[in-house]
Hints:
5-stranded mixed β-sheet; alpha/beta; D-Maltodextrin-Binding Protein, domain 2; disordered N terminus; 15 helices; about 20% strand
Amino acid sequence: MTQIKRSFTLAVLAASLLLQSAGCTRQPPAPGVVTFGVDTFSLASAPVLIADEKGFWKGEKVAVSIKPFASGSLAVDALVAHAVDTATVADLPVVFAAQREPTIRIVATFSDSDKHVNMLGRKDRGIKTPADLKGKKIAVTVGTAAEYVMDQFLQNNHIPKSAVTVISLPPPDTVPAIVRGDVDAIVAWQPNILNAQKQLGSNAVTFPSGDIYSQPFNVAVLDNFSQQNPAAIVALLRGIRRAEEFIKTNKAESIAIVARRLGLDPHDLAQIWDDYSFQLNLPARLPSAMAAEDGWARAEGLIRKDAKAPDYSTIVNAQFFQDIQ
């Protein structure tokens, strides 16, 4: 049986995570400052966190104010609401945002990983292979890349979604749920999987999503802001590129900076650091990947089936990336 009350669940999730981020928001920035909504809970944000830490944007003569969020989907919600000027976000939240705000654009991808989102189960619940998930309780954050991965994983392993019980939880609650035994498995992103593995030890079994989904983490803007502030967008991307160059030559310091910003042990973070590619680019697969995710979201009832689908090739704006080449 699948237990998903989507509208209520997503409303509660958004409210709870916004409350988490509200306590650490800064004062409104001065005029001329780019407000950057950043997922400060994800390893995928590493280049942005390092650019902020090392002052690389100051070197590009652009003032950037980081506004922290508990997820990229919340950051992009703030972007659509004009509460921030730009945001870090994966591809799936952009699919949802484009239904409300057709002028949203991805201007660059700064990290990518096919090991960012994974399925993790408890061995003491009889989970050793994917087939063992039948009849189990799986915690996931509904309406995110984690749910997309879960659905594709179940489909690839010939498990009907109706054969599992889906429990929707905010990202920070998935790890306590699996550790306490409230659920049998979780689908989550890093560093949540790492934290669960550390606490469960040999009782954890992990199923990577590499052949299902590779998550690009992107910089998103609205047309109005980018058209009025093209130099600021270019400088923002150059600062991120400087951070990625720093990562290549200063791995240990980079890990130390990101571990401190994420509240992780550097030794633990080092175990998964190489699972990520930190390179400013614009993957050619983005439009087709978002179109596939759009189809999944409509099938799941997350987007109205009769709603007009955006032209995802126009969601990717290569102008600013080309300007920094």
